[in-house]
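Could you show me just one protein sequence together with its fold in token form as a worked example?
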Amino acid sequence: MLITIPLLAIIISLLLAWSSKSARIWRFCWVNVVVMSVYDLIGGFYIISFFDEDGSRFGPVLILLFGTLLHIVLLFIAIIVMTMFRAVKDQGDDIKGTKING
């Protein structure tokens, strides 16, 4: 549950940023993705601290490394995708705003 909520927030932020025409909402979504990713990583460390009490260190370390790498990859994908959508929207706004004098 601790990890699922931030992942849902990231997905909702990506969808909102994709559908948004406002630069302010786009920036808010981008910040939200970053904050939720950091929160999710901290939650991962918190969960790992419980597993570490059992004495088995190999499994939790692998989970932590996999989770960290997964979040870093997802964060970069989110930034790239959101930047691409923003660039496409900016081009669309430029095309709509120009007049063709004939």
